[in-house]
Amino acid sequence: MKLFEERSLYGEHAQVLSVDAVLHQARSRYQDVLVFRNPTFGKVLALDGIVQLTEADHHIYHEMLVHVPLLAHGAAIDVLILGGGDGGALREVLKHPVRRVVLVELDPEVIAVSQRHFAKVSGGAFDDPRVQVLNEDAAGYVAACADRFDVVIVDSTDPVGPGEVLFSDAFYQRCRALLRPSGLLSLQSGAPFFQLDVLQRVRSRVAKHLGAAREFLAPVPTYARGLLPLILAGAFEQSFCPTVSVLRARSIRINGPTRFYSAEVHLAAFALVPCLAPLGPDEGTPRP
To answer: Which of 83, 99, 119, 212 has its CA 20 to 30 A from that of 42?
Structure first.
């Protein structure tokens, strides 16, 4: 039996998936791109040996990364996606009554391979006239961009390789400059049981530049230990979790079904286990 082993992120832990068939394997200008089929998760996309998405569970990640900030905001019309070449986040954004979405993906091969092998993930989103796709470096784009957005979504790889720059102070500072006063930023921040220090460092950096930042959780089976902390940031923490009645009312505007996200899930996702909760000024280091 052929096996795929993801080990590069965590030296003491490996994820192993059986491979029914390799559907694509090549080196792009920036990274190794692999698509294979697994009997449980369907098609799997891996970049540089790290699983990025699967047909079976991608919707959990994409729905939480997108609907949490857009429904917390409540009136977003201009959205920026940094990364996200598979089109899953783009598809979810377009379910909202937005005016414009700019997607900045460094590697055009990721878009091409995803549209060929994961067409249902994007669902034709790249053909929507509201969408502008730019194949360029996300850090360079935010450094030079003069536009303003209501929501910025960082759908990046982990903080290694091409994605490392998207976890820096300079990057978060520029993201804040791109946001309107009520704007929100969402991003992923690694696997907490292996990288609690990374999570704490990212949260601290984001809060320093945007004013407030909180984790919320998404249970994605093919990410390490199945627990993925996402971060929502903006000027006012009280805007992150509107009441359930407000979230339900705003959810009516979503044009299409959600398989995981709901108003109740939105609020529950911010109820963190003690080891992940933000520290107060008089609290010590949380126990992992």
So the answer is: 83
Q: Is 147 a catalytic residue?
A: no
Q: Do 179 and 213 meet the contact criterion of CB atoms below 8 Å apart?
A: no
Q: Which residues pair with 32 in a beta bridge?
A: 27
Distance of CA 44 to the CA centre of its chain: 17
DSSP class per residue in 45-108: EEETTEEEEETTTHHHHHHHHHHHHHHHHS---EEEEEE-TTSHHHHHHTTS--SEEEEE-S-H
Q: Which domains does the chain have, with CATH numbers?
A: 3-54 (2.30.140.10), 58-269 (3.40.50.150)
Using one digit for the tens of pLDDT, what is the confidence trace for 23-41? 999 999 999 999 999 999 9
Token digits for 252? 């009516």
**What mean pLDDT comes out for the span 206-211?**
94
DSSP secondary structure, 250-270, as one string: HHTT--S--SS--HHHHHHHT
- Which pTM value belongs to this model? 0.91
Q: Identify the active-site residue in 155, 158, 169, 282.
A: 155
Contact 232/72 with Cβ under 8 angstroms? Answer: yes
Measuring CA to CA, which residue among 67, 57, 62, 69 is closest to residue 86? 62
118 and 55 Cβ atoms separated by less than 8 Å: yes
List, in order, residues 6 or more apart from 73 with CB less than 8 Å away.
Answer: 150, 151, 182, 183, 184, 239
